[in-house]
Amino acid sequence: MFSDPALDTRGYAAYAGPLLALSMSDDHGFAPPGAVRSLLRQFTGARIEHREIPAAGGFRGCIGHFGFFKTHNAALWSHVSQWLGARAMAG
């Protein structure tokens, strides 16, 4: 994507806010951790926090790409709610 000269990707580097990225160790098809790390390198101005969540932490030892949003993996949602809460408290 970033090697396509027809795409304007300057906005990635221009973003200067906080950014939480989650990747699941067993997401092999859509956003594997290595691909997420590669994407995050484009956000050169952002304050990045990247959490790689091990599949073992998910329901029955798997999460995948969409499984994070399933109610049986609700215990994982605290990664996001705590991050958002900390930013809300900071003002």
SSE layout and pairing:
Elements: H1 10-14, E1 18-24, H2 33-40, E2 47-53, H3 78-90
Parallel strand pairs: 1-2
What does this structure look like?
By secondary structure, this protein is of the alpha+beta class. The protein has a domain at 23-84. Helix content is 29%, strand content 15%. It is built from three helices and two strands; from the N terminus they run H-E-H-E-H. It has helices at 10-14, 33-40, 78-90, and strands spanning 18-24, 47-53. The chain has a two-stranded parallel ribbon. Helix 2 (33-40) links the parallel strand 1 (18-24) and strand 2. The longest helix is centred in the last third of the chain and has 13 residues, at 78-90. The mean pLDDT is 93. This is Alpha/beta hydrolase. It comes from Simplicispira suum.
Can you give keywords for this protein?
single chain; about 90 residues; alpha+beta; two-stranded parallel sheet; 3 helices; 2 strands; flat
Q: Strands of the largest sheet, in order across it?
A: 1-2
Characterize the main sheet: 2 strands, parallel
3D shape: flat
Report the strand count: 2
Ends: how far apart?
A: 35 Å
Approximately what portion of the residues adopt beta-strand conformation?
15-25%
Helical content stands at: 25-40%
The count of helical stretches stands at 3
Mean pLDDT: 93
Helix and strand pattern:
HEHEH
Oligomer: single chain
Radius of gyration: 15 Å
| Computed structural class | alpha+beta
Q: Low-confidence stretches at least 5 residues in length (pLDDT < 50)?
A: none
Protein name: Alpha/beta hydrolase
